[in-house]
Amino acid sequence: MKAAALKAGSPETATPTTTSPAAVERSVSAALERWEPEVVGLSHAIHADPELSGQEFRAAKRVSRLLRSAGFSFDGPQPLLPASFSARFGAGELVVALCVEYDALPTIGHACGHNVNAACAVGAALALASVADGLGITVKVLGTPAEETSGGKVDLIGEGFFEDVSLAMMAHAGAEDVIGGSSLAMGMWDVLYEGRPAHAAAAPSEGVNALDALVIAQTAIALARQQLPPASVVSLIVTEGGSAVNVIPERARASVEMRSPSLKNLRTIEERVRRCLEAGALASGSALKVTPTGNAYAELRQDRYLSEAYREAMSARGRAVAFNEDPVASTDMGNVSQLVPSIHPLLGYDVGGAAHHTAEFAAHGSSASADRAVLDGAFGLALAACAAAKDPRQRERLLNVRR
């Protein structure tokens, strides 16, 4: 029974031993080999059964079932988000968090490869459990839903599930192996204008055109872009703009997404965009309501030591990992990285040249190349955590994060 092979540690065995790096690597490799069918099967099952943000109930159950079979216990209380969970193995002072994200995108499924992300994190957790007692670590696995929308990791931060964490890690599906990259801070708003309806031909002057307000706001935002901080992005789509061409629109709604290299610059952008939205309301006479959708995402900070340890471990698997600090997209892992040392490498596999968030990218998520990436990434994450746990200076640094 695999559950018997990994027995939870006790306080008496929670301090590091003199286990050699070679022995640790052998244990991690053996654990991954032992659990390979289950880890790869988990990736395929999540890929074949995509669930939208915040509704990843079946994925969370699949992950939880596998962790329980490996001897992980589940914390009490559990997170409030229904598709999240908190599980752990071992009793060491150094707490290593593995973040498991598993949400898909509407109509195109796992077009960002979150099935790969999930299985890789779980594989790393199972591998670390095999050495937890000898290294004096606790392996903490957090199910973190809704990365594509509201940011489940931010909610878990607010609930205190990262308070005991010394370092956090996960890997993200990609077309190539990259470490060190940042991400863009991001905020999202729902924008609603409310005016007054009227017959567009018989009595247009009696109406207040909410769609006009939105057009003015869009124009103002377009003109403001040249004065925004460098590398900033503002995206807007109209989600409601009237019901009939011969009726002055009484309601207009839009979704706005703002990104910038830092939270500080994001606040500058938000102030500027809000003024543009207010200009539309003022010019048209409409009422304006701005509602944040989900949590604001902070920029990602990847820990240099853990990054280099990951690169070295991946080289043992025959993978050359590039170091690139350029920001890529946005992630709620950025918020985690503002609290504790973290890594979030891109984990490459053959995607046939397809870009993220496309059906073509999703089609490659259960390929042999993706399966190999899951196992290699799990090895890299586990060995990076092991290196930090065994290095006295790094161990002390990481323990001081939460003291």
UniProtKB/TrEMBL annotation:
Give the region (Disordered) as residue ranges. 1-23
Positions of the Peptidase M20 dimerisation domain: 194-280
User: For this UniProt entry, which segments traverse the membrane?
Assistant: none
InterPro entries per the UniProt record, alphabetical: Amidohydrolase (IPR017439), Bact_exopeptidase_dim_dom (IPR036264), Peptidase_M20 (IPR002933), Peptidase_M20/M20A_hydrolases (IPR052030), Peptidase_M20_dimer (IPR011650), Xaa-Arg_dipeptidase (IPR017144)
Gene3D superfamilies xref list:
3.30.70.360, Zn peptidases
Coiled-coil ranges (or none): none
Tell me any Pfam family this protein matches: Peptidase_M20
Q: Which family does it belong to?
A: Belongs to the peptidase M20A family.
Q: What is this protein called?
A: Peptidase M20 domain-containing protein 2
Provide the species name.
Arthrobacter ramosus
